Amino acid sequence: MSSDNSNDDVTAIDVATGSFEEAQEWVGRSGDTFFAAEPVNRSMIQFYAELIEDANPSFWDERFAANHWGAIRSPPGLFWTWKMDPEWTPGPDAEEEGEDVSVTDVPLPGGKDTIINTQSKTTIHRPLLVGTQLNWQTSIESVSEEKETRVGTGNFVTEKTTYRDGGGELVAEESNVMLRYSADGEEERTESFDTPFAEGRRAVDVPDGQGPDDPYASIDVGEVSPGDTVEGYEFPVTYTKVVHNAAATRDFSGHHHDPEYTRSRGNETIFLNTMALQGLADRVAVQWAGPEWRIAEREIAIQGTAYAGDELSVGAEVTDVDETEGRIELAVTMDNDGRDVCPSSVALVRDGVQ
């Protein structure tokens, strides 16, 4: 039955509620294995690469990718997206067997119905290639006591997801620390912004395309030393980019497309999600090192917000080089008007089809 109440929050999510003691009982609980609704595919890969303006031939050039990886390779920032079901398919929804677990299932007290990601660590054991039918299993690693944060009162819940390919081989592991909170005093929060959400946030300078002179060239590990500066790029966060972000990652949380919703949760306007920030960190690393390198490990700490209207300056510095292992580590910064909104560490390795 439809509702005539125009104030219904259509972006709200269903969450489990209960005592903190009940929430603690979820620590260590694992869900069943689930399979992606579709194989890893070139269209989604390139839609995401378009979002982060990543010219890596591994995502675009079928001949190069086949020779070096075996096929077009998925960007590491898309792991979470491959888990997400399509918003609509013809016919009845498929009935999935088994139990999944996520931050929404943990029975927290206080009706905490808003979720943001605060930290993410991904370890990638092998490239994820077009045609792979990915599967995953998620577990709850920890639940914090209630905390006061800048956006509201909530609990930090750590999820860990293990991804495998169709043959059962381990592909990647990812841990995410999610803040599930209640945006206390929503009216006061909305009224605290004394200007319309878009005022002053549309005139963003968009530079000409920025990329390597030779997108096929790759560095040699012997050429690199700790302390070397990595050439970065400017990334204007336009309203179009943030909405593209929601579509390219299938993340339709109201934070990424609905300014009124996200303002009611204590934010200025819509903003980039975790997968976009992961992609920006990955891009600066591989754009510098070259397409024969890939991300082996990445850790981000979201310490600010990349709102529509902001301009990010993404750069990096080499922190460690292991010539024996063929591994380079970088510290990545995403400066937004003097504040690093997402300090990250990235490890690169050079492998592929031998």
Q: How are the SSEs ordered, and which strands pair?
A:
Layout: H1 20-24, E1 34-35, H2 42-52, H3 57-60, H4 62-68, H5 79-83, E2 114-124, E3 135-143, E4 147-148, E5 153-164, E6 170-182, H6 186-191, E7 229-236, H7 239-249, H8 259-264, H9 274-289, E8 293-301, E9 311-322, E10 327-336, E11 339-340, E12 344-350
Antiparallel strand pairs: 1-3, 2-6, 2-8, 3-5, 4-5, 5-6, 7-9, 8-12, 9-10, 10-11, 10-12
CATH architecture: Roll
Secondary structural class: alpha+beta
What is the radius of gyration? 21 Å
Apparent shape: globular
CATH fold group: Thiol Ester Dehydrase, Chain A
Helix content: 10-25%
Number of helices: 9
Q: Give the number of domains.
A: 1
N- and C-termini, Cα separation: 59 Å
Low-confidence stretches: 1-7, 186-190
How much β-strand is present in the residues? 25-35%
CATH class: Alpha Beta
The main sheet comes to: 12 strands, antiparallel
- From N to C, what is the helix and strand string? HEHHHHEEEEEHEHHHEEEEE
DSSP, total strands: 12
Domain FAS1-like dehydratase: 37-173
Biased composition (Acidic residues): 93-102
Protein name: FAS1-like dehydratase domain-containing protein
Region (Disordered): 90-116
Walk me through the structure:
Residues 37-173 form the FAS1-like dehydratase domain. InterPro entries: FAS1-like_DH_region, HotDog_dom_sf. This is FAS1-like dehydratase domain-containing protein. Residues 90-116 are annotated as: Disordered. Helices cover 20% and strands 27% of the residues. The chain has 354 residues and is α+β, with helices and mostly antiparallel strands. The protein has one domain (20-350): Hotdog Thioesterase (Thiol Ester Dehydrase, Chain A, Roll), CATH 3.10.129.10. Strands 1, 2, 3, 4, 5, 6, 7, 8, 9, 10, 11 and 12 form a 12-stranded antiparallel sheet that branches. Strand 9 (311-322) and strand 10 (327-336) form a beta hairpin. Helix 2 (42-52) runs antiparallel to helix 7 and helix 2 packs across helix 9 (274-289). The chain is globular, with a radius of gyration of 21 Å. The relative contact order is 0.16.
